[in-house]
């Protein structure tokens, strides 16, 4: 029998999707110049040539039976070891291959991390503004997602609210830094304070509380930004990573879960992920892609355009009069709308001027809007006068 | 908090895995000649050169931002259209691109199919002998797996038992043909009878009952075998396919779910799968792999070795005195053990003679054992005297 829950959902497109579809429709009807699409977080720079070469070399030189053969359930041993070594080298950690679980992107990593350290009925806390897919990621495990309201002055953590919302049912906290949609990076002070509070709560409740860190933007951090490696600060931590943004390989679905070697049951969590996969139908990422990233783990695409765009856009918007918390990384910015209803602001902007931006309501942070600036710089330049026109209309 | 359910599972390796690990250990200790491993279904022939060339051409010629970019949630449109066209051409079906959902192998397809047409508490029926991963695949959805005992005379369907086990809670039936572990292909008569019974039960219970067909071995069918395209015979059917065996790409995790265009809500099921992915953390398969299979959809690896091995092994085993139902495809054979306890038979065989075969208990069909003959023919030749020695020991 057709499942009524999923059937009913098919009618309901996400707001980001609606904006994206509107953008495509307008471009088709009025021409590509009629629309400036800032709705989607798709990398705009190519994968490094070294990544392409790594794939080509494997295809040319390796025995195809081995190259394309089943990956062990817990991942290619050489890939796991290479990821551990890279993290240790870069961040002074102590990962071993057994702590690394290759996944189909950060989504795969999160779906395993959440199942490994929660059970149905538990609470998972996250912080607004947050990536809306956290709702199905968390509720799909049977746990409940509780959202701490944003501190809109800095988009760091609202600790007062966090303490109020803490209960003994909390088994995990899910953070995303550098953050989509705010572009903010949690500071060392923020992470230290979060770790101290979680440590205190672990003692108070008598059970471990895991910190799940969603870090696909880790490599996109702007000059002068304090960007701590979060797992250094808290033992019971699971780092969820994706090469989608750093190597511009989002469609290849390659990422990993890294279990903090100091976590409770650290040596058991990757084997648990292997079990979890059997129930969700997840599989190891492509064998070719696991092997191909090995030699380029410490490289990235040329990510400099994102910072150039950030500076250009931030300077222009603040000059115009927008209130914007300065992003420390990613390719997102999350200004305050110059009118209370950011939905109306975005739909008006989209419909009348061809500026496609997403209202903050989608990220549980109304009154703001998200600009995805992983676009050619020229698109930013063309958009600035439109942002100015919009601001004047409301101011 | 660490999830106790998954943690407890990590101690329990599957029996197939235990045999595989034993095999590796013995090879390391006593040398590779000391063990003849027939425990694993890993293709032993390379991917066709045309598949490798397709990957190379894409890497050489396509814009990497597009090539490695996010696939649409419901799959690459050109890949979907090409799969539909191939199925229509080969099997006289009427699929459109919208009926095809690319997945990470057959496992991904099954995990979506099961969630799309069952709800927690429903019953899913399958038939012994069956692939043991069906247990987590089905129970992971919240449904219950009910197993119809094997008809060991033919390994076709035991219809008497099926009728007895049918209840109004049955919302789907899951079949695997060509079958792992028996190597049997369900005949046209079997499929027609199953379809007639399911149609009758749909009317009797007043709700649809879906037929989920797990078909990774569809292309490995031996000469003279009646091998119907199952979805032709029953409208409410979801075909789950993988290129793992036909193109020898198991590690690339590329397959699809094909929704019968005549199914109830046929146009809704692929969008439902897009929703299901959000809850399980599944992602589209690799963008590169989706594109790479397009030009080789009607090709296969050189699969002839599997039939050569099948004939050689079947003739030898029956000559020795084993009772074997002749396989019609796959690279599995499922003889009756010459002793009641196939577990003891296999562990004895494995331990003493270095023959690694898997007891039928793993497939809920005791008294039999599975031979995976996706191995060099020379390995079969070396194994035959050992199978003979074993038989004599018990006979």
Apparent shape of chain A:
globular
Q: What fraction, in percent, of the residue positions of chain A are helical? A: 40-55%
Return residue spans of chain A where pLDDT drops below 50 for at least 5 consecutive residues. none
**Secondary structure category of chain A:** alpha/beta
Write down how many β-strands of chain A occur, each being a DSSP E stretch of 2 or more residues.
12
Number of helices of chain A: 14
From the structure above, extract its key features:
homodimer; 3-stranded antiparallel sheet; 7-stranded mixed sheet; alpha/beta; 12 strands; 395 residues
What's the quick description here?
Chain A is built from 14 helices and twelve strands. Chain A has helices at 4-9, 15-30, 49-61, 64-67, 77-91, 105-117, 134-139, 159-165, 188-205, 266-280, 287-293, 304-320, 342-353, 377-394, and strands spanning 36-37, 100-103, 123-127, 144-148, 170-176, 210-214, 237-242, 255-259, 332-333, 355-356, 358-359, 369-372.
Could you explain the architecture of this structure?
Two copies of one chain form a homodimer. By secondary structure, chain A is α/β, with parallel strands linked by helices. Helix content of chain A is 42%, strand content 12%. Chain A contains 14 helices and twelve strands. A seven-stranded mixed β-sheet of chain A has the order 2-8-7-6-5-3-4, with helices on both faces. In chain A, strands 9-12-11 form a three-stranded antiparallel β-sheet. In chain A, α7 (134-139) links the parallel β3 (123-127) and β4 (144-148). Chain A starts with a helix and ends with a helix. Chains A and B meet through α1, α3, α4, α6 and α7 of A and α1, α3, α4, α6 and α7 of B.
């Amino acid at each position: 029998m057709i499942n009524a829950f999923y059937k009913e959902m098919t009618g309901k497109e996400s707001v980001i999707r609606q904006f994206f579809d509107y953008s495509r429709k307008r471009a088709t009807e009025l021409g590509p110049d009629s629309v400036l699409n800032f709705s989607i977080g798709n990398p705009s720079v190519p994968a490094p040539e070294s990544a392409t070469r790594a794939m080509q070399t494997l295809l040319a030189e390796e025995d195809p039976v081995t190259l394309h053969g089943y990956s062990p359930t817990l991942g290619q041993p050489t890939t796991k070891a290479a990821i551990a070594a890279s993290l240790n080298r870069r961040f002074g950690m102590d990962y071993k291959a057994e702590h690394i679980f290759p996944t189909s992107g950060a989504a795969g990593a999160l779906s395993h991390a959440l199942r490994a350290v929660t059970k149905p009925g538990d609470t998972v806390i996250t912080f607004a503004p947050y990536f809306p897919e956290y709702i199905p990621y968390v509720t799909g495990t049977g746990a409940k997602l509780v959202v701490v309201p944003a501190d809109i002055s800095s988009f760091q953590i609202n600790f007062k609210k966090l303490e109020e919302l803490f209960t003994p049912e909390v088994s995990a906290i899910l953070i995303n830094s550098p953050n989509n949609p705010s572009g903010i990076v949690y500071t060392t002070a923020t992470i230290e304070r979060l770790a101290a509070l979680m440590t205190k709560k672990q003692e108070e409740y008598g059970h471990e509380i895991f910190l799940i860190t969603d870090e696909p933007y880790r490599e996109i951090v702007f000059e002068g930004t304090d960007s701590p490696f979060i797992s250094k600060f808290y033992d019971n931590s699971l780092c969820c990573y994706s090469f989608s943004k750093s190597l511009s390989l989002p469609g290849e679905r390659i990422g990993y879960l890294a279990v903090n070697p100091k976590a409770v049951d650290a040596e058991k969590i990757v084997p648990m992920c292997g079990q979890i996969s059997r129930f969700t139908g997840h599989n190891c990422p492509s064998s070719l892609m696991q092997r191909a990233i090995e030699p380029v783990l410490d490289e990235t695409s040329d990510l400099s355009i994102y910072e150039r765009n950030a500076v250009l856009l931030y300077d222009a918007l603040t000059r115009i009069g927008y209130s914007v918390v300065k992003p420390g990384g990613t390719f997102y910015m999350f200004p305050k709308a110059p009118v209370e209803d950011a939905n109306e602001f975005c739909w008006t902007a989209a419909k009348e001027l061809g500026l496609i931006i997403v209202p903050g309501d989608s990220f549980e942070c109304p009154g703001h809007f998200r600009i995805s600036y992983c676009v050619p710089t020229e698109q930013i330049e063309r958009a600035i006068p439109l942002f100015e026109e919009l601001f004047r209309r409301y101011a």
